User: What shape does this take?
Amino acid sequence: MPSLPSPSGLSLAGLQSIAAEARSWPFEQAAAVIKRIERSGKTDPVLFETGYGPSGLPHIGTFGEVVRTTMVRNAFRALTGDAIPTRLIAFSDDMDGLRKVPSNLPNQEMLAQHLHKPVSDVPDPFGTHEGFAQHNNARLRSFLDGFGFDYEFASSTEHYRSGRFDETLLVMLERFEQVLAIMLPTLGEDRRATYSPFLPVSPKTGRVLQVPTLERNLKSGTIVFEDEDGTRTEVPVTGGHVKVQWKPDWALRWTALGVDYEMCGKDLIDSFRLSSQICRVLGGTPPEGFIYEHFLDGEGGKISKSKGNGISVEEWLDYAPHEALSLFNFVKPKAAKRLHWDVIPKTTDEYLQHLDAFAGQTPVQRLDNPVWHIHQGHVQSTGSPVSFALLVNLVSAANATDPQVVWGFIGVYAPGTTPDSHPLVDRLVGDAIAWHRDRLAPAKRFRTPDARDRAALAELQALLEAYPEDFRDGAAIQDEVYEIGKRHAYEPLREWFKMLYEVLLGSEQGPRFGSFAALFGVRRTAALIAERLA
Assistant: This one.
């Protein structure tokens, strides 16, 4: 993993000293991990972990968990002066049995024949990999690699079958009753009667079975259960012959691997607590944890993959840079936030604002600036001379579908700004064109101006026509626009600006009108007004 650059060219020791003053949540989390290491005296690399369920494809929650954990890892490295080695593993629970066939997959009948087998033993419905889990694991790695994450992939199946978990599995067998004492009070009456932390893999069908453990043999390290055909069967708990139930499995992993940090969603608070208790029973120390809130849909309801009421990573990247998605995950992770279409342009502009502020901040302020965490310390100095909202409205006014047309305006508005000198702006131009084409143009509703609107617009048109053609002072234009709105008694004044964008662009909102006119050109803006009045 590359070393962390320090703000203002400080030495690594200087970065460490400044990091101690940082107060953003990744630094608070990293400080808790440091205290844990000090208590334990651990000398192995500090292990950060994220989990992944391979029965589905990577999604926005997968991204969020890895990007947030990466932020904590980098804060830890800054606090320790990069002196303590760290690892981040993305752990795939591919030993789990396939409980149902996802409705969005091909070859449904074939998949149904393999229900309850470990996901890694289910054939790939896409026909590209050895198995279904292998297909989705490859997608996960490609997904994470695409964002440049530094991580190690880990497979549950490989860990069970290679013997990596064997020692801890034998401890769990020995302390079986203690694990039950933790789990049984949390279960319903029917489940308590049959519950076992061990789920044997049937030697005859290969299915992961939810059956009681009839006998335990500590000397041979085996359990006895009733197989699907009714025969009493004995298998070792080692070597991949069993899969452990979810909460004990989490504890097994923490103990066997020595996980130091793992975050999870609010819905897993009880699971984290129970797994922590079991981890201690197994002789391990539960990791430091961070509980985050899940995103909500546009109506404030829970996002469901089956309902499709959320926004996917791919959809976000169609219209905005991944850095903006990282910012959305950084801001207030413990607060429930609505993830709907309108947050994409809003968050993109917030990202640009943080990027612009970075150069003028003190070293400590820079470490608490989200862009330091988003860029893992490697913050670009070049932001954007125009906001994303301004670009979108420029595309709308110019009816532009060609990036070169948009760059023609930008080059005049901000001389010296080119696609080569400002690659981020070049990405934003393409995003703005796509956003207008897909999200705004189909929903445009132009307002018909009334008598007052027409009089105010005519005055604004005359004002803009009186400026020199190359006039680019957006603030001066904005001041004059304010005065026109006041003279025509728009109350509150935001109704005046709302009318401007509804009449001129078919949208209820937009950026500062003065900035828009300066970018689009005063004469072009005047001509646009004349066109709408006609």
Observations:
- The chain is about 50% helix and 10% strand.
- The CA atoms of residues 461 and 527 lie 8 Å apart.
- The radius of gyration is 29 Å.
- The mean pLDDT is 94.
